[in-house]
Design brief:
Length: 416
Amino acid sequence: MGSVSLKIGDGTARFRRATLWSSAVNLLMLFSVIATNLFALYAFTYSSPKPHLLHDSHKNISLISEQVSLILREIDSSQKRLAQMEKEILGFESIDLSRPNIAHELKIFLQNHPLPLGKDSRSGITEMVASVGHSCEKSVDLLSQYMSYKVNGPCPDDWSLAQKLILRGCEPLPRRRCFAKAIPKVGLYSFPISLWKNVSDKVLSWSGLGCKNLECLNGKKLNKDCVGCFDLANGYENQRYVKARRKNDFLIDDVLALGSGGIRIGFDLGGGSGTFAAIMAERNVTVVTVTLNMDAPFSDFIATRGLFPLYLSLDHRFPFYDNVFDLVRASSGLDVGGRPEKLEFLMFDIDRILRASGLFWLDNYYCVSDEKKRVLTRLIERFGYKKLKWVVGEKVNESGKSEVYLSAVLQKPVRV
């Protein structure tokens, strides 16, 4: 699904609203139980004069029947109200196309389109449905702005807007019918020379970024995993994973030696400028690097090195089949922010794409607090991974404060 240290804005809100939803359910259920008992008590304690006992019995039965019908109607009405509340709270309601300022292209895209040859014999579908996540409803004004473009014309230069939508959970993006800006890729190096040769600034896309050249980027600390990570010639990049600076730094060759049955393909979460994938490529291992262009042209830069960038947020389900990767590496990009449930969702997807006996490499994960370390440790133990390497160490940051980091190599168990 770069860092990829992401905090998806609507994720936390959804959990808070889920609590409101649970409270509403409890109150309505309590009301139904109380009403049911009151009606039953009234019906069965009602007494009438003995001379008219038979007649009054029929009246009581009729009254009970009416009250039961009333209760059933009330329950049905409550269920409908609860369903509507669920749609409004969780955002499952369709985008209202009657709203003002909705882009015409967005209206066309969201309509179901019949298949040109009718019903598909294999799948049984008769029409194509738009693939837009329900979180887009919460950012419909930005989405409509993003979809205001000229069909068959050049796409607007607005990747900062597109990325803002992605970070709010609105993906996949629906823009389809315009031509992306074509940047001439002149001066690219052949593989494997391309792995360690800086390219010209002109072949990279600087849309929506503060820096407009590599020199500017190399003077910044973009994130914990990218300090000078665009300087391939003079920086530390070619020493990473080959020489250890701290006890938390594992060497690639040592990790590869732990792989059962060989490591051939890997998946890197938060891979910076692609250096991990580059060193693995020198060892004949293909690595897919998840990236976003957070303050730098990560995707473009990784591609110019002859490597595979995957532009995806970590809130998205990984677009791979089950049990396909031999190794998954994650660093501070595993810190998705927000509540523990988001980390749990991410860990389950990592487990899904990692093959049995495959390796999960947790590389210098920043434990911002003891609680965060305990949450991650308990989560790992739930999966039953075997701890091949496990090191907790401290590092003093620029302000003189001690920071705790966890590095581990874990082996996925064979589950029956």
